[in-house]
Amino acid sequence: MNKTLRTIPLLILIAFTLSACGLAPFFGSNEQEQVVVTPLPPSESVDSTDGGLPVPPPMSEPTGELSISGIVTGTVDDCAFDGICALIVEAEDSTYQVNWAEGMMQCMGEYTGDVAVGDTVDVFAATLEPGTLSICSGEQYYIRKSNA
Fold this sequence. Notes:
This protein is mostly beta strands. The chain folds into two domains: 3-50, no CATH class; 64-145, CATH 2.40.50.140. It contains one helix and six strands, in the order αββββββ. It has one helix at 3-21; strands spanning 64-78, 84-91, 95-102, 120-129, 132-134, 142-145. β2 (84-91) and β3 form a beta hairpin.
């Protein structure tokens, strides 16, 4: 690949970064933007031990456990965006989203990743909310390719 063509994406990235950050300081503009800082009201979402910075809400707490078998009909591959990676499993009674990654937490459940759309799986997981399961909160949970 031509060396010039490889540098074009980098130049575009630099241009977007500069436009997002503002160019006035680089070109000697005397205009200054006035920023008003409003203190946060006291609330449960601020952790005073973390310098008063807002703390994101925790993941849903498990409300029970469920064992299902079903066919994988899709995947959720948003790990890089919101941290959720999951399999969509159509069981006999309903369709479930089975999370196997949840943000920065280490997922403690068993999942080898050898499952594809169309495969039948056996799942034992914690119930987060109706239709959403997770194997991340304990080593006893799993997603396994069914031998049947």
